[in-house]
Design brief:
Blueprint lengths: L2 H16 L2 H14 L3 H13 L1 H30 L26 H13 L4 H20 L5 H28 L2
Helix pairs in contact: 2-6, 3-4, 4-5, 4-7, 5-6, 5-7
């Protein structure tokens, strides 16, 4: 086992055992809301409804970034990586029974949360700040629940940031290179 793997394992065990049960329940509820991108689609609907033109732009960019991040994380990276989830015996609570069977690497939940938040924030900073709290909670929950190692979450966040960058720049790039 490499030093990086040992640190990943130690951080996973620590997060799973040190987060108080009440906090873990809140994290789990937020993660459940984010499952299948429900939370982010709901946030986009509210932004589009209440935010005028800025809200519609933020929502559209956020959803585009989320789609890119989900495609890259779940459609490509998980298929290539095949990393097992953290061992169940590391997780001292019953949430470990509820984790998916897919590859642990990267965290698709984190990729989607970060992509949406990072894409929304430049257009509507207040909405981005509001989305940052549940996005962070989703990332922490994925480790606390035993679904992911911290490095899976970090990779998901990087994919999310790349998805947001691409979603924000794709229209200008396409127009610049369109014949």
């Amino acid at each position: 086992m490499t030093d990086g793997q040992e640190v990943d394992g130690a951080l996973t065990r620590r997060a799973a055992s040190r987060i108080p049960p009440g906090v873990a329940k809140v994290l789990s509820a937020v993660e459940e809301a984010a499952e299948s991108s429900k939370l982010w689609c709901g946030a986009a609907a509210v932004m589009a409804w209440k935010g005028g033109g800025r809200g519609r732009r933020a929502a559209a960019t956020g959803l585009a970034a989320l789609a890119v991040a989900q495609l890259v994380s779940n459609g490509v990276c998980k298929q290539l990586a095949g990393r097992p989830r953290p061992p169940a015996e590391w997780i001292p609570h019953d949430e470990v029974a509820d984790r998916p069977d897919s590859s642990s690497f990267p965290s698709g939940h984190t990729a989607a949360a970060v992509a949406f938040t990072a894409a929304v924030a430049p257009t509507w900073p207040a909405a981005g700040a509001l989305c940052a709290l549940p996005a962070t909670m989703v990332a922490v929950e994925r480790v606390q629940s035993g679904a992911h190692y911290p490095s899976d979450v970090a990779a998901g966040a990087a994919i999310g940031l790349a998805g947001a960058w691409l979603a924000r720049r794709a229209p200008a790039l396409l127009l610049r290179h369109w014949p």
